[in-house]
């Protein structure tokens, strides 16, 4: 028995949101201009992620090189202090490996990889705080950092999770909700309804899947707009700097 | 603990985010938790007199808007005129019964703060409040003050969480008053501090519960229902019990293994002795005496510490109940009852001496040092007549209530109507049990009526066994088909109109041509099952079991399903049936009545000559039963050689196959146990109980039973195959050998026999060998006693145990479930849904695929099943008592247990057992000689002759029924001849 009302009959969730509301979403790009080619910082609720992108660059070993396209190297570091109970996570942990694999697959499709043959793009992620939506905040951070690095992509990948509880779809779950609700995470391509990522690890009835996907896609579009705003803000800033020179 | 500065950030118009920061202790470690907390201004006041809030609300995922329920013209009372009520947590926790009362409390606002506190303190009370809110008649609303920006209260530095919550509740009252200036808002709280602060803050109407009820005209009878906060003044500082340990000490103790947690089980023969089973100890921990029990109730979840080895004892062989121990207490005084305590002590000393002599059987003892969770519920009892003072003033007086459950102490209540309530069965709730009080304190809730009247007794036993017997709520009845009794199986199965309504219809098989009949007890109206059989051209047999398709009407996730899940089972009393599902389904739409078409779930086997399964098929179907037989009529029809129609032939095939099935089952080691079950015949005109009869079995009973077992087993295999983690199954664990130790020892000493429990096969065989040539009944007696040593069968979801533990010991099969009675058992409904999903009929609801949810369901239906059995037995017991009232007689009885101060005798004819105390056996208490190792008791009987009685002895007893005046319970009294 959960100690909380996950979704009260009055239509409110544990943290006071309604069913179709996102958590606070804040992002910045170009946070580490000196140490990287592209960088970003994303806060989705209390989940906080830093992403650093380096590349396209010469691969360190010939074995990793592909003659036709760029190879992606992703390293994910979930800091021990990110969760409530301090816990050291190894990079080889199965769970982390799985996330890295699905991220690779997602971005190999979204980056125009054949523009950068014989190169490597390295993506480093640091999760500073975790309050649910790990995969979605990471995906959004990578998208922003790639844009900052000037790497050619087909479109934004905006990611958000959505769950299904007592006949109600719930958007953007926090940690508390994730432990009680079965949920999926999607990555939406730009303003379309195409998905670059779909991860569902528990069960959602097939007949309800559509309604869950619908609010997730709508949520993804809202996140895309917020990210776009930040990119444009940063773009304007750079332009004005150029103009002043 | 200081509270760090919390920032607030405005996200958009009407939405602000802040965070809740707190420190939680888990497993003895402290961890800091930060949670987001969104504040908004679109939370409505839900009053119909408000025009603003109507415009701010937004729809939910289904597009529905919240309903505004608070009346625009609320109740007017003197002094406070038209008002809404805001209630504090303590009011809900203490007097939920009063809130549910139809006479008081309309238009009530429950702040979210209060609801959360209630939820954390008591989940059952939380569900009751939620029911009140969802049911519009009493106009209760939940106001989410924590999420509304202008009612959210920040915790101040160094403010305790309780003080902050109180402030939040006051804020709600204040906000409502400003929001709705035309309606008075009354804050009700029993917390003096909170009340004072509220007045200081400028809230106009603050009342205690008592003051509020007093405003009602003619409220005197309601006042009894109030648990007053100062109901029982501390009359002396003397402590009868030791304080519980602090939470920190308990948690620490549990963590480092010095303290243990478990549920206490109080001996039904001795209310001063309890047992706690702790997984890490081989023997249960014994708790002796009221000091060690330290205010625990039967079933409480408690924390114990183990006493030094010098205090270890063996379980008592004495019978002690509250009656002879505390009968002289004065409810108004709390003075140390020396005489009583001494008596108690003397009993214990006797015990102690005995236990010292025999060290081999001593058990570790413990003392309760903390209570994790009280098992308190409503209890039924009766006022003890000598505890009521005779002075005729109208003030509230203390009196004792003796509860029906003998393992519980008496409860002290305060009421104005003590004299009036004498001789009635009443319901009481328990409020508290402090260290300075010898008895738990409670308050009166409801009068059930004169004890011994059928209505009062029936309601009392339903309440005592926690059976939900109230009529179905409207939300539940709304789930039934709109056609009501006119609902029919559609005639044209291809009609597009009908297919639109029921797209699954084409998946049903049409079995209307099969010659199906049902065989049930006479007068049965909820027919779950029907059968058919015919010979196939290849020499094999086709046998079908058709079960009512309840899940066609009871869809998962509906209020109807939730009600069924919470009731768990129908309860059968002698004169009454408490249905699990509304009567429309149970006795009409689902019931496989003869001559009409019904939906069914069919299991069809191809069986060969030896009744081995060649093939099995599961289908949802449409059937038409040709006849509904009673067991007797079916037997007559089968035996009547002149009947040669196909239906009768089919029944003969069934009978012949069922005998083979039974033989196979017995060969595999299925047990044939026995219980002293009796049936009460009712006079059809006056509905007075007429006579008692031991249930007898016909061949046709076993015919139906065998095929139901076969269906259950087949279905269990199928759903386990499909859902290895969550299949709804039933298991029966083999009895631990310790259970049989005593019985075996008795058999060895007395009869030189033994029971082997290595497997169910050896048990069945050894039971067959337990015969006393001189006495036919002896074998049955042993079977009855063995049944009591068995474990109870239980429902479980397949993920909870490994496959080898699925075994059903009693039936000697490796896997089993309940599938055949969905009208009256919830397990069967789940099994139906899982089977339907496994044949691809419809997809399975998520809740039946979730391991945790399934475990919760199993836990509940196991409890309900047990309670239903107890309630059924209690009902029979009551009626047997009524029968015996009219005819006293001499009957044969058997001694089944011997104590040092009494013997327990079972009378098979009535299925009653009762204790005969030594005082009734002899005039010279000193002549008693209790030989424990020989299970015998010798004494000088009333004529002065020496007599010895041992266990298994056949005795003649005079049976009569006597009313226990103080408890108002009729019980069988046996007098040894």
UniProtKB/TrEMBL annotation, chain A:
Q: Which Gene3D superfamilies match?
A: GHMP Kinase, N-terminal domain
Q: Where is the Exoribonuclease phosphorolytic domain?
A: 21-151, 155-218
The record's listing under Pfam families reads: RNase_PH, RNase_PH_C
Q: Where in the cell is it found?
A: Cytoplasm; Nucleus, Nucleolus
Is Transmembrane helix among this UniProt entry's keywords?
A: no
List where this protein forms a coiled coil. none
* Any Gene Ontology CC annotation: cytoplasmic exosome (RNase complex)
Predominant location category: cytoplasm
Highest taxon in the source lineage: Eukaryota
User: Which SUPFAM superfamilies does the record cross-reference, listed alphabetically?
Assistant: Ribonuclease PH domain 2-like, Ribosomal protein S5 domain 2-like
Cite the CDD domains for this sequence.
RNase_PH_RRP41
One annotated GO molecular function is: RNA binding
- Subunit field text: Component of the RNA exosome complex. Specifically part of the catalytically inactive RNA exosome core complex (Exo-9) which may associate with the catalytic subunits RRP6 and DIS3 in cytoplasmic- and nuclear-specific RNA exosome complex forms. Exo-9 is formed by a hexameric base ring of RNase PH domain-containing subunits and a cap ring consisting of CSL4, RRP4 and RRP40.
- Which PANTHER family does UniProt cross-reference here? EXOSOME COMPLEX COMPONENT (PTHR11953), EXOSOME COMPLEX COMPONENT RRP41 (PTHR11953:SF0)
- Its name, as the record gives it, is Ribosomal RNA-processing protein 41
TrEMBL record, chain B:
Principal place of residence: cytoplasm
Q: Where is the RNB domain?
A: 508-841
Read off the SUPFAM superfamilies from this record: Nucleic acid-binding proteins, PIN domain-like
UniProt-annotated stretches for the region Disordered: 318-342
Q: Which domain of life is it from?
A: Eukaryota
Q: Where is the PIN domain?
A: 83-196
* Places the protein is found: Cytoplasm; Nucleus, Nucleolus
Quote one Gene Ontology molecular function term. endonuclease activity
Family matches, as PROSITE patterns: RIBONUCLEASE_II
Q: Which GO terms describe its biological process?
A: CUT catabolic process; nuclear mRNA surveillance of mRNA 3'-end processing; rRNA catabolic process; rRNA processing
ATP-binding recorded as keyword:
no
What does the UniProt keyword field contain? Cytoplasm, Endonuclease, Exonuclease, Exosome, Hydrolase, Nuclease, Nucleus, RNA-binding, rRNA processing
* Cofactor(s) named in the record: Mg(2+)
| Residue stretches of biased makeup (Acidic residues) | 320-332
Cite a GO CC annotation. Answer: nucleolus
The record's family statement is: Belongs to the RNR ribonuclease family.
Stated name of the protein: Ribosomal RNA-processing protein 44
